[in-house]
Predict the structure.
Amino acid sequence: GMLRFGFKVLTSGCRFSMFRYVMSEVMANLSNPSSGIIGSMVVAMMNDINAPSVRDIISRLHISQGDVILEPCYGPGYGVEEILRYDSTRAIGIDISQPMLEVAQQLNAAAVQSGRAQLHLGEARAMPFLADASVDKVVHMNCCYFWRPLNQTLAEFFRVLKPGGVMLTGTKFDAVAANAPYDAAGAFVTRDLEAYRAALASAGFEEVWSEEIHLASGCTGRNAKSGCHVDPRM
């Protein structure tokens, strides 16, 4: 009986260790999806859960005709695709994942070829391809947790935004807090809303505000690829 009990404890411990390992790998791939199995799982999760969030936040951006819009962390490229549904818009994206660049380029191939979409590989803290005051709006979803250093990245967004420009951030800090125990790789740099708000103010952003919303509550479906359905797991 004691041996059986000991075996059960050992088995349970191994399973827990493997769970922590897999979750740690998932956390690492959230910021920079690889081309491996777990990276593919993360991309599938992005498509299933994150895509409606991205389309929703873009619907709240109040895009005007001809806007130049920057999306850091464009991932598989559905945000860029959504931005380009608005009249005469231009989309610029930057992401640190080579696999995501390739997927996003394929999804938006015609716009990339015409120059209406420009997709870059790199970190948002340095965007030499963008001139000062050259962007009307910046939009990103589930992205700000990963920027290091945060202040330098926000300062770069402030540099490229035109006077009066707007940056709209979508976050799920409650989910970040819930998954923090599995973040062995330290992927989540910023885990607190108030810290992020303070960093925005330090970077020069004015009228910094936040509100809690139910995703898709303001979506009309006019520009959304798949209507306004929101996965309940979001």
